[in-house]
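Retro notes (design track)

What went well: tokenization of the new backbones is finally stable.
What didn't: we kept losing track of which sequence belonged to which structure.
Fix going forward: every design gets posted as structure first, then sequence, in one message. First example under the new rule, 292 residues:
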């Protein structure tokens, strides 16, 4: 009986270590699992991790996001066909924007909220309210801060490159993966590749001096299960990670920890862990307890 109890406890310990990422060589087991409130701009990973993602030749960041729509009326963003921070009137999308030296605030995208910010260099933005002035506006977009010699320039300039993405659905958990190799970026929703584009210029790694942050004060929802990987993941790798971290309904599973499986004690009173009692040899001994 005691042998089976210890075997069950050993299995519980191994399962706890597995789901806590103890045996994982790919993802960073030191990251907090969450969930985190997006409105509180939680730090998902420290600056060192952001710099490794940006400065290495390859890297992947993954996390689950659950967005809540804002109860606000739509707004209108003025378009402009001249280079700058306004959307193009022909496409309703943002073109390459050249920053004012290192100041990219003139290129900021109006009406968009920051869902994910990796070192102020790689960002994922969402349009949380309708834009009446741009029917073809991208509901979600990948924004890269890059540096290179733009047309007509003789020296390197800091730029913002923007890539339109399919909308991230509201009121639903979505597993977002951003994987890169050099200037090539792949973006996945759950198990689906939604973008694979090559940036025009190299990442402005000199600006990557901030942590990985999710959300902002104006955005409501949650983030959970942030993960980092030093490699560029294939679609098979992404599918495997998604299936490992979700239940049958597509919701992220709760990350087990040491504290979690310490509570899974099958013998709360400690009775089944007591030592085996040896029967007395004398038949005249008064035996008044149950046999083990």
């Amino acid at each position: 009986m005691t042998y089976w109890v210890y075997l069950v406890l050993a299995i519980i310990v191994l399962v706890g270590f597995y789901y806590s990422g103890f045996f994982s060589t790919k993802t960073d087991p030191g990251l907090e699992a969450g969930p985190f409130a997006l409105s509180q701009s939680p730090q998902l990973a420290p600056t060192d991790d952001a710099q490794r993602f940006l400065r290495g030749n390859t890297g992947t960041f993954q996390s689950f996001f659950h967005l809540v729509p804002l109860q606000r009326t739509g707004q209108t963003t003025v378009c402009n066909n001249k280079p700058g921070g306004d959307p193009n009137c022909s496409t309703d999308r943002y073109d390459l924007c050249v920053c004012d030296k290192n100041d990219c605030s003139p290129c900021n995208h109006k009406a968009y909220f920051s869902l994910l910010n990796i070192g102020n260099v790689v960002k994922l933005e969402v349009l949380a309210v309708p834009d009446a002035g741009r029917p073809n506006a991208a509901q979600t977009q990948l924004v890269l801060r890059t540096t290179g010699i733009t047309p007509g320039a003789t020296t390197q300039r800091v730029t913002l490159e923007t890539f339109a993405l399919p909308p991230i659905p509201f009121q639903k958990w979505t597993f977002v993966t951003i994987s890169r190799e050099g200037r090539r970026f792949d973006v996945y929703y759950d198990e689906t590749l939604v973008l694979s584009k090559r940036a025009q210029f190299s990442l402005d790694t000199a600006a990557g001096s901030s942590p990985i942050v999710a959300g902002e004060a104006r955005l409501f929802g949650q983030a959970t299960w942030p993960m980092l990987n030093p490699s560029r993941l294939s679609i098979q790798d992404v599918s495997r990670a998604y299936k490992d971290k979700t239940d049958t309904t597509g919701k992220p599973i709760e990350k087990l920890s040491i504290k979690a499986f310490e509570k899974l004690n099958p013998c709360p009173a400690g009775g089944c862990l007591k030592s085996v009692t040896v029967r007395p040899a004398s038949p005249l001994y008064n035996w008044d307890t149950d046999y083990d």
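Added context from the reviewer: Residues 17-26, 257-266 have pLDDT under 50 and may be disordered.
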